[in-house]
Amino acid sequence: MLSVTEIEKSFGGVRALSGASLDCAAGEIVGLIGPNGAGKSTFVNVVTGFLRPDAGRVSLGGRDIAGIGPQQVSHAGIARTFQNLRVFRDLSVRQNIEVAHLRCRQLRPDRAARVNVAALLTEFGLEDLAEQPAGSLPYGTQRWMEIARALATAPEILMLDEPAAGLNDDESARLGRAIASIRDRTGCGILVIDHDLRFINSICGRLFVMDQGRLIASGAPAEVWADPRVIEVYVGPGSPDQHHAPH
């Protein structure tokens, strides 16, 4: 469904992405990991149309969508959440979700027909909070609402940027179960970007590892964590603290 091939992106004289590639099929959960500064955010912003690549191809269902802009990428079938929450704080929880669904109904009524806003509110435990201003919700609850809002567009590919950030272990476990349920219910492909490696390992069938703008490894988690290049990145100097080491 989603195929990203040999993406290049530079800012001034600094190369942020160099030949970065990734693929995600329908019904698959894949993870994108790497240390801070690896290029993950730039990669996601290229895929979702916020940045235009200097070279390479982003294809969804065989259609080249590189550089067409975030709204057009959303219409094509890719939805995302953000590392830093972006919610309409003064709108209610229900309105946040309905805005996304309304836009989808206008542009892709075939896809929008698959979505029931009331069912999304129930699925994410938001029904009792539906009329509350989104900005009044606790941080973790806003995370749930942002995912529900992304699903209101009936995406073919769902990209979750740091969804476990700020969540405790119980909340992360619940999030993992929810992501698996979304995959099973909708059949969409899901790409998860997160620093919590135990969380990533628990939900992803394949991992892609980036370092300094390059893809250094990909495959099943067991294969990736046996790769000497990945071990060097995560165990060598400058590695993340052991709280995030995979088990």
Note down, in words, how this protein is organized.
- The chain has 247 residues and is α/β, with parallel strands linked by helices.
- It has two domains: 2-77 and 155-244, Rossmann fold; 86-154, no CATH class.
- It has helices at 40-47, 70-76, 93-107, 109-112, 117-123, 139-151, 169-186, 197-203, 221-225, 228-235, and strands at residues 2-11, 14-24, 29-33, 55-60, 63-64, 78-80, 157-161, 189-193, 206-211, 214-219.
- A six-stranded mixed beta sheet has the order 6-7-8-3-9-10, sandwiched between helices. The chain has a four-stranded antiparallel beta sheet with strand order 2-1-4-5, with helices on one face.
- Strand 4 and strand 5 form a beta hairpin.
- Helix 3 (93-107) packs parallel to helix 6.
- The chain is globular and about 50 Å long.
- The model is unreliable at 238-245 (pLDDT under 50).
Can you summarize this structure?
The protein is of the alpha/beta class and 247 residues long.
Q: Which of globular, elongated, flat, extended, rod-shaped describes the shape?
A: globular
Please describe the biggest sheet, giving its number of strands, its sense, and whether it closes into a barrel: 6 strands, mixed
What is the number of E strands?
A: 10
| Strand line-up in the sheet with most strands | 6-7-8-3-9-10
Mean pLDDT: 88
Order of helices and strands: EEEHEEHEHHHHEHEHEEHH
Q: What is the fold named in CATH at topology level of the largest domain? A: Rossmann fold
Oligomer: single chain
What is the CATH homology-level superfamily of the largest domain?
A: P-loop containing nucleotide triphosphate hydrolases
Q: Tell me which CATH architecture of the largest domain applies here.
A: 3-Layer(aba) Sandwich
CATH class of the largest domain: Alpha Beta
